[in-house]
Amino acid sequence: MNDDVVAEILLRLPSDAVLRSRTVCKAWRRITTSPAFLAAHARLRPLEIIVQRHGVSGAQLDTIPLPTLDETRRRCLQVRYPEYTGPPEPCWRGYSLIGSCEGLLLFERGVGIDHFVCNPITRRWTMLPRPTGDFSQLLGFYLHGPSGEHRLLFHTDDQQGSHYICSPQVAGTRRLGQAIPVHGGFWTENPVVYLNHRGRLHWLRHPPVVFSTDDAQRPEAGDKILAFDTVSETFRRISPPPPRSDRYFGEQFFLLETDGKLSMTDILKGSMDLWVLEDYSNDRSWTRRLRVDLPPSLLRASWAMNSGMDGQNVILLGASSSCSVGLYDLTRKRLLKQIYFVTSGWPGDSVRRHRTPLRALVFRDSLERHTPLHARDSLEWHAFFDLRHPNKYAWSSGDQSLGAGHSGGDNVCLQKDPQKECPG
Question: How many domains, the chain?
């Protein structure tokens, strides 16, 4: 068979099978590591919901096909977290999944302490540099179009109240400029909820700051949507749609993208309004597209986000109280399917099953190389770390650890076995 035929066959294999195929021969490795193949394979991978479940055995990652929410096709990603070997810390909560972007996952250790980027398919990890300041709030994880870099936006409590940008592919952090905090304390929400709409990050809630372009009479503008253009790296405030006349405590708002336009849901008393900004440059062009009554199981929906399913007016609604996720069709105004996430194995839990804290993200796996800072290429399966403090982290596997054999470079690697499916 010629290379084109082989490539067409390999494109249809799941990611772990493609990785194993690279050991067959040099020709297959050359085919499956070419940029064209990697990009084409990533486009063909199905969308999934990825959920981090916590139990006594640690945190594991489950994925379920997004279009169907077919639980029989659930798979477990065998991700091994870096072992923290530094001084004991109060309220240790392990590693929390807080972001997903183009095949990479973002994890946080503690609150605003250390951040890691991981490709769960290739098992590559990168520890991100920490911005200046005692505390930093992660605001967004995005793909920078012009450079192709994955980037993260932080706000810090340094003297200037600055925003910083860092990337797994570039050394250090870069300060954007001053944004003066308007309160004495440092605002935090974990994780920060944002929408990436056409290369712009949008927040309904953001640390209250003052920009040079803000109205001096209303410096905080806390009732406005804040937008950040990831190309020009400038901020803009956008007026939201008008509130309901019966607004009261408990009304919830979430940003979405509808028909390629910025939109916002307003959930109140079991009903949901959908507002769309018809002209992005005009804050007064909000129109209410629809109002729907939510199904009984989602009356207390606590989050909403786009499903990522092209050409379908379907969103994801989640209820943290019931640890459930539902696919809701806005066009047909009905719930397509709802699933519940539970975990077992807690001490003394011999009778009932404990629900897990729910953090669901849209994910599409990718074999594309997102080379971390100073990473070394290898023909083996490896996990890579960029360790600023190598003595703080290790990855145990039998008698080996990431700390062993470190020879002064920034990366430590440990050969790992191919990804396997979780039982059950």
Answer: 2
